[in-house]
Amino acid sequence: MLTALSVVLNQFTIFFTQVLRLSVTFLPVAMCAMLYGPLLTGAMGAAVDILKYFTRNDGSAFFPGFTISEFMRGFLYGVFFYRRRVTLPRVAAAHLSVVVIVTLVLNPLWLSIMFGDAFIALVSMRLVKNIVMFPIEVGLLYFLLKKTGEIYSRARSSGYYAKKSQ
User: Fold this and answer.
1) Domains along the chain with CATH numbers
2) Which residue ranges traverse the bilayer (predicted)?
3) I need a surface site. Which of 29, 69, 71, 154 has the fewest CB within 10 A?
4) Minimal CA–CA distance to 23: which of 87, 66, 64?
């Protein structure tokens, strides 16, 4: 269900340029990470990347590097959120690690390989966008994960999962 939500949210991505875009598809990935852990969420991220290619292809060829990036995004969120209490510093650290590793290193690397653009130029464009968006994205992520944790705790304490498995 979270995979489908991520694919649907991808339809609302705003493209500034061919290499710079604004999206909230990281939210369902982080929710999945909190519930299912790093490996399953990494696999979900890779699956979402492939599904996004088929549902909203902007005319470019499929490049497996972005699938690796999406796996890493899910894996990193899973390392920070799975079976851990959601705190603002944890959310900020998780999102910062994803931004640095995936958004500022891996994705510009893949774009540089694909289009031959200068790596530093791609990073500098993304750096400005991510500095501006970081507090907004962390706030959204914190709120969503707190609510997800509350709902999950209520469902577990009500015995919903025990009834369902019988």
Assistant:
1) 1-13+23-148 (1.10.1760.20)
2) 12-36, 61-82, 94-115, 127-145
3) 154
4) 66
